[in-house]
Amino acid sequence: MAKSTFEYVKNFEVDDTLLPNTWIVVRLDGKCFHKFSDDHNFAKPNDIRALKLMNYAAFTILREFNDVLMAFGQSDEYSFIFKKQTTLHKRRSAKLLTTMTSKFTSSYVYHWEKFFENDLLKYPPAFDGRVVLYPSDENLIDYMKWRQADVHINNLYNTSFWTLIQKGKLSPSQAEKRLCGTVSADKNEILFQEFGINYNNEPEIFKRGTLLMRQNMLFNNKAKNIIVDIHDDMLKDKFWKQHSSLLSLKQKEINLYNGPTTDIISEQTSLIIE
Q1: What is the spatial distance between Cα 26 and Cα 100, in angstroms, rounded to a whole number?
Q2: What is the DSSP string of 19-77?
Q3: In terms of Cα–Cα distance, which of 174, 148, 145 is closest to 162?
Q4: To pair with 102 at 20 to 30 A between CA atoms, which of 164, 173, 216, 237?
């Protein structure tokens, strides 16, 4: 095709190619999700249906894009970690961000009925996102620890807050005032002494979020690459020692994960399996 006289406008495009040999993290967050959750009557402090839907939307991304090594989610956010050597979309930031955001959002809407059944979706949700680069394995591990620490802080507060309202019959402003200035030990004490709730017995998915990762497993003596959901404690070095090969895979080992992924997810959180 002959060049057009208007083709010069391409020169205004900015080169947004991401640095090579760095970990690419795309983090998506729900936009105005407090209102969205209220309008759709999400259970407080946690709605297991909503969490499973988030996990399933993330699963569809890992299933489609083998360059996504793993993903971590909690509440209304999900982080997608790409293989360090990925060349997907030539490492263009805008391409990666828009692809992940649109795929996740459309999957969330498309699979809504699987988890909410007769509760109709009143209006489409929105997710925004950002791309962050981490140069070292240590930086990436600290990022994952940071996001999981955020799960604990937020969930302990929300569990205490909504327990004071639902069981303690306090108003939202009274519950907020009661928790003002408290530390984790204080919140645990309130839950246990006043309501007989041992926070340690809360479901792991609420306390630690969900990590989706790829594993090779044997089924009928055949190796299959599957995506599993786990809720381990990533704040402890034990986890990263146990999964030391996850971030230090050589190219030969990486190829083990490049086969077609299956529609299998572990049943640790009873996610719907296609």
Answers
A1: 8
A2: PTTSEEEEEEEESSHHHHHHHTT--SS--HHHHHHHHHHHHHHHHH-TTEEEEEEETTE
A3: 174
A4: 216
Is 75 annotated among the ligand-binding residues?
yes
73 is in an annotated binding site: no
This prediction has a pTM of 0.88
* Residues 210, 225: Cα–Cα separation, whole Å: 19
Determine whether the annotation assigns residue 32 to a binding site: yes
Instruction: State both tokens at 51.
Output: 């969490």
Which residues have C-beta within 8 Å of that of residue 127, sequence separation ≥ 6? 28, 29, 30, 31, 101, 104, 105, 108
pLDDT tens digits for range 198-216: 999 999 999 999 999 998 8
Tokens of 86: 């990925």
34 is in an annotated binding site: yes
Say which DSSP state 260 is in.
P
Alpha-carbon span 97 to 127, nearest angstrom:
11
Q: Are 159 and 190 in contact (CB under 8 A)?
A: no
Distance from C-alpha of 66 to C-alpha of 109, rounded to nearest angstrom = 22
CA distance 205 to 92: 33
C-beta separation of 251 from 85 below 8 A: yes
Give how far Cα 243 sits from Cα of 20, 123, 240, Å: 24, 40, 5
Q: Binding site annotation covers 150?
A: no
**If you ran DSSP here, which 8-state letter would residue 32 be given?**
S
Give the whole-angstrom CA distance, residue 132 versus residue 191: 37
Question: Rounded to an integer, what distance in angstroms lies between the CA atom of residue 195 and that of residue 165?
Answer: 12
Over residues 166-175, the pLDDT tens digits come to 999 999 999 9
